[in-house]
Design a protein that fits this description.
heterodimer, A: alpha/beta, Rossmann fold, 4 helices, about 25% helix, globular, B: alpha+beta, Arc Repressor Mutant, subunit A
Chain lengths: ~200, ~120
C-alpha cells in the first residue's frame, strides 16, 4: 500500500502541523453553532462524549443522582491559519449544566468568545461566570439579531458586570467576516493581556 | 432470528464494549488527549488489525483532530480515546496536543498569537 499522504498542493495541513483551540460559549440560542458554521473552513461537525466515568472526583452532583449515560454534543469547525497551524473552534454544549463534565473542555484553549443575545442578556450570565471561574480569557460578542434593542455598550457592560479591560464587540454570527472579526478581537485581547502579564512580576 | 450484527453496526453501548474490549477509558499517554489533539499516523495499516484501528491510521495520514476522527467514525470521545491509546502504545500514531496560550512558567507566547492573528486577517 502506498503510504504517502494525499498529495494536496496548498493543503492547509503539513507535516509539522499543530493545533490551537478557541471555545465559543454563551447561553442557549445565542448563535454559537451559527458562528462556528459561518467561520469554519470545513462543514462543521459534531463530536460526542458519552458521560459516565467523567463524574469521578466531582462532588457537586446535586440533582444528577442517577448514573445513566448522558451524551453531550460539541459542534466544531476549523480554520487553516497557515501551512503548519490549524485553529479549532468548539461551540460549548447548550446545556451548560454539563460543562463541568467536559474534563478539560477549556483546558488548553487560547481563550473563548462568549456570545450574548442582547434581548436575553441573562442567558449568558452562566457562561461568563464559568469563564471567570475557570480563568479562561474571553471577549464578549453581542450577536445582533434584527429585532435587537439598541443599548449603549456601557449599559450592557454594566448589566453583564464585565470589567473595562474585557472587549465587547457587536457581530452578526451568520456573517463570516463579522465572526472572523470577533476572533481577531479575541486574539488582540489575548495579546494585550499577555503584554500586561509579562510586565507583572510573578 | 435476526442476522448477527457486524461490528460496525451502530448498536450503542454493546458496540462500544466490543470495540474497547470492555475498557471504559484510556490509560497512559492517551489520558491527556484533547478534542483538539492532532493524531498523525506513523505506520500504514497492517492486515488483521481491528477495523477501527485501520480506519484511524488511514484517516490520519495527514494530521486530524480527535474531534474530527470522532465525528467521521461516529464514536464518542472516550471510546475513541481507548482505541487511540492502543495505537499510541504500539507507536503507530503520534498525538500532538494543542498549543496552549501559555505553557506553565514559560510566559505567554506572543509569537503564536501573532501567527494566529495574521492567519485570521487573511481570511
Amino acid at each position: 500500500m502506498d503510504f504517502k499522504g494525499f498529495d494536496h498542493p496548498g493543503s492547509p495541513v503539513g507535516d509539522g502541523t499543530r493545533s490551537v483551540k478557541v471555545m465559543i460559549a454563551g447561553g442557549f440560542g445565542t448563535g454559537k453553532t451559527t458562528m462556528v458554521r459561518s467561520v469554519s473552513d470545513i462543514k462543521p461537525l459534531t463530536t460526542e462524549e458519552t458521560l459516565t466515568q467523567a463524574s469521578a472526583g466531582v462532588d457537586h452532583l446535586i440533582g444528577v443522582t442517577d448514573k445513566t449515560e448522558t451524551t453531550v454534543s460539541l459542534d466544531f469547525g476549523k480554520i487553516g491559519i497557515n501551512d503548519e497551524l490549524v485553529l479549532y473552534l468548539f461551540g460549548t454544549p447548550g446545556q451548560e449544566r454539563f460543562w463541568f463534565l467536559w474534563n478539560g473542555l477549556f483546558k488548553g484553549a487560547l481563550g473563548a468568545v462568549v456570545l450574548v443575545d442582547t434581548r436575553r442578556l441573562a442567558s449568558s450570565f452562566r457562561a461568563i461566570e464559568e469563564m471567570e471561574r475557570q480563568d479562561v480569557p474571553f471577549v464578549i460578542a453581542l450577536n445582533v439579531f434584527p429585532d435587537s434593542p439598541q443599548h449603549p455598550l456601557d449599559e450592557i457592560r454594566d448589566a453583564l458586570d464585565i470589567p473595562p479591560d474585557i472587549p465587547i464587540v457587536a457581530c452578526d454570527a451568520r456573517d463570516r467576516s463579522s465572526s472572523r472579526d470577533v476572533l481577531v478581537a479575541l486574539i488582540r485581547h489575548l495579546k494585550d493581556r499577555s503584554a500586561v502579564v509579562a510586565l507583572e512580576p510573578r | 432470528m435476526s442476522a448477527p450484527r457486524r461490528p460496525t453496526d451502530p448498536s450503542g453501548l454493546e458496540r462500544y464494549y466490543v470495540l474497547t474490549g470492555g475498557r471504559s477509558g484510556p490509560g497512559g499517554s492517551a489520558s491527556s488527549l484533547d478534542v483538539a489533539t492532532l493524531i498523525v499516523s506513523r505506520t500504514a495499516p497492517v492486515p488483521g488489525m481491528q477495523h477501527e484501528h485501520e480506519e484511524i491510521l488511514r484517516r490520519c495520514r495527514e494530521p486530524l483532530s480527535v474531534a474530527e476522527l470522532g465525528a467521521h467514525l461516529g464514536l464518542p470521545f472516550n471510546i475513541l480515546a481507548v482505541l487511540l491509546a492502543d495505537l499510541l502504545e504500539a507507536d503507530r500514531v503520534e498525538a500532538r496536543d494543542p498549543i496552549p496560550a501559555h505553557d506553565a512558567g514559560r510566559g505567554p507566547d506572543l509569537a503564536l498569537l501573532e501567527e494566529v492573528l495574521s492567519g485570521l486577517q487573511r481570511l
